[in-house]
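Render this sequence as a predicted structure.
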Amino acid sequence: MHMDFRSHHKVVQALKADNYSTGTAISAEIDTAGFAEAVIIFDAGTVGTSGTVDVTVTDSDTSGGTFTAVTGAAFTQVISTNDEAVYVGRIRLNSATAGTPDKCNRFIKVQAVVGTAACDLGVTVLFLGAVHTGVTLNTMAFSID
């Protein structure tokens, strides 16, 4: 039996792929309710001369609340020597083990700080393992029909 990707996983465009000028780009808040983990995919394009990109995840326990940095949810700074690459991070959202705390609050935002020169980037969040009755969280390794 395979798990249908469309009904057990969700993809959210946090920061659309674009050329970002210097400053801070912050996604809309993203509700993580109902999923076991979030995979954050940072697609770093070309970084301008002497440019930097720092991508982090923030969270809040309430919609519209105060967002603070999620401990450990920061990508290595991207500069011209490590640009044009895809970076991936993961956060456990809904603890599958009793007594093990979740690693972030229900609402998240992704933030990219671009310094010195414009940079191409995009960030996507892939939610895995819908947690509701009858869902087997680890049955789909591949789904080739």
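Summary. The chain has one domain: 5-130. Strands lie at 10-20, 23-26, 30-31, 35-47, 52-60, 68-74, 85-92, 107-115, 119-130.
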